[in-house]
Amino acid sequence: MINEHFVAPPNWEWYILLYFFFAGLAGGAFVIGTMLRLWGSAADWVTSRIAFLISLPLLLICPILLTVDLGKPLDFWHMLFDANTGTPILKVWSPMSLGAWALLIFGFFAFVMFLVALGEGGYVRSRALSGVGRLPGSVLGAAFMVIGAILGIFVAAYTGVLLAVSNQPVWSDTWTLGGLFLASGLSGAAATIMLLSRRQREANVTEPKLMEADRYFIIIELVLIAIFLVTLGGLVTKTLGGAWILLWLVVLVGTLVPLLVEWRPRWARQVSPVLASVLVLVGVFALRAVIIFSAQA
Amino acid sequence: MAQPVGFFTDTTLCIGCKACEVACKEWNHLPNNPLEFRGSYDNTGQLDHANWRHVRFVEQPTKSPDKPIAWSMMSDVCKHCANASCLEVCPTDAIVRTEFDTVFIQQDVCNGCRDCISACPYGVIGFNTNTGTAQKCTFCYDRLQNNLKPACATACPTESIKFGPLDEMRQTAARRIDALHQQGMSEARIYGDKEYGGLHALFLLTDKPEAYALPSTESAVLPSRNNIPGYFTAAITAILAGVAGLIAFRRRGETTASPSPSGGGAPSSPSPSPGGAPSSPSPSPGGAPSSPSPLAGEGRGGG
């Protein structure tokens, strides 16, 4: 049932859009890095390293965007600690509260794996780093990556749940946003990793696997987009109507074209994989933009 | 412990004089509204950070050809819900319940995340760009602490806005609705008895709630209803993505045991990956260092 509310828009705009975009990529990159490490061959470890190397920098952008979006940026710490008592504050039913902690804790995992990737790849010559670089080979390291990946999934997905846990039309009238943002975040992360690994010959062996994974992520995303639109019922015109349809077209181009290119039918072989990856990222951005902005219009 | 307080706003008595709006602005030092023609006597527009009372002019069609439009006035205000959506989502605990059972935003704690604005189903809360905080009716908390009635209820010349202990307000509302029903106003109803666990601002309406921009009883639901379905969908998606990753990334008989002499961690042998991209042995580190990789010899072997 669609509930009728009379909500004012929170005016979450560009900072939040960019945050949702980078959070999806950071979380997705960590998850892909972990999957490559756990299920791939040693040949895939170069690409896995790239995934871990980009996850942290992408994640570091997120708290900056979140902080500058606040009305009182200097009070950002109120998200984590009680302003009166200084004790930690966590409200598990508030996605924003959970997300603030998830960002912090995931940041630790992303930081460690960033160091691991630096050490393992020998990018920085340090005895300590090379020691850390051995972490993924151990059971402890695998467990560490899995926990980090679960946090990465949360960081990529909770932004959708955050929108849904409101009374805003569109956002609160569907249960799909958490999954949708996760699927598109993974797709965007796969595209980013492919773009950044193109110059690494040793990563070539993993590229077809990434393309295959991205195909699946895009299919999941498309299914969830369809369910999202269905669940909105009569409200679908609010997000599809007017100029918003143009952004949805961008989303479609950013999913269908890469899907075809990655499947490589004969006619699509002329399309550059680089272009396909860029289209994926544009689509990931447009998806979040149309969902964020159309509901508040 | 102070007792819970409440408003009872009888819309049948409201004459649209806006004395409540003025009194509220004066007492709470709220800024004036910019002069703007809205095509209506309702030149306040909506509740927000600078308007904690809003006399809504609801235009309703009538059957009379002489007066095709009738006005219903309603002095709208924060409902101070027993189960408050804003309080539920606030991540900083800036929104608290007072000793009078009202809902209050602590201005020194709020950091302006605006989550409460997206949660309030009545569109009550506004964002003050000057203070960087969310703001709404305080139920004149400072006046309550000094045993004074809220400014709006004090100023209302027709006693459309009544103030008192919540139980008393409920009884007053019940008596009034009985009287109106006996007078033949069968469409009159009380809003706020059931919604959100009971509101601290009750309204006597002469039309369905939606006509006054109030969600119906069925639509009066909390944001947290979407937590479990939202996370559940994300979890299912994560499982599907994991399966996708397992299918796409699984080892497919690649020879992986031999470490790369380049130190990149990649194997030196070409990959028979079915994806199609050849993995020619790299003569150069390709961005990876030339020093022996710590991974050397740690290959997990082909699957």
| Radius of gyration of chain A (Å) | 20 Å
Low-confidence stretches of chain B: 255-303
Q: In the CATH hierarchy, what is the superfamily of chain A?
A: Formate dehydrogenase/DMSO reductase domain
**SSE run of chain B:** EHEEHEEHEEHHEHEEH
Q: Shape of chain B, please?
A: globular
Q: How many domains make up the coordinates of chain A?
A: 1
Structure in words:
Chain A is mainly α and 297 residues long. Chain A has one domain (14-296): Formate dehydrogenase/DMSO reductase domain (Formate dehydrogenase/DMSO reductase fold), CATH 1.20.1630. Chain A is 69% helix and 0% strand. Chain A contains ten helices and no strands. Residues 255-303 of chain B have low confidence and may be disordered. In chain B, a hairpin with a 5-residue loop joins strand 4 and strand 5 (103-105). Chain B folds into two domains: 5-221, Alpha-Beta Plaits (2-Layer Sandwich); 223-268 and 295-303. Chain B contains seven helices and ten strands. Chain B has helices at 19-28, 85-89, 115-119, 141-145, 151-155, 166-182, 227-249, and strands spanning 5-10, 53-61, 69-77, 95-97, 103-105, 126-128, 133-135, 161-165, 189-191, 201-205. Helices cover 23% and strands 16% of the residues of chain B. Chains A and B meet through helix 1, helix 2, helix 3, helix 5 and helix 6 of A and helix 2, helix 3, strand 6 and helix 7 of B.
Entry summary:
The complex is a heterodimer of chains A (297) and B (303). Chain A has 297 residues and is mostly helical.
Features:
heterodimer; A: mainly alpha; Formate dehydrogenase/DMSO reductase fold; B: alpha+beta; Alpha-Beta Plaits; 2 domains
Helices, strands, pairings?
The complex is a heterodimer of chains A (297) and B (303).
Chain A: H1 14-39, H2 45-69, H3 95-121, H4 127-132, H5 139-164, H6 177-197, H7 207-231, H8 236-240, H9 244-263, H10 273-296
Helix pairs in contact in A: 1-2, 1-5, 1-6, 1-10, 2-3, 2-6, 3-5, 5-6, 6-7, 6-10, 7-9, 9-10
Chain B: E1 5-10, H1 19-28, E2 53-61, E3 69-77, H2 85-89, E4 95-97, E5 103-105, H3 115-119, E6 126-128, E7 133-135, H4 141-145, H5 151-155, E8 161-165, H6 166-182, E9 189-191, E10 201-205, H7 227-249
Parallel strand pairs in B: 1-10
Antiparallel strand pairs in B: 1-8, 2-3, 4-5, 6-7, 9-10
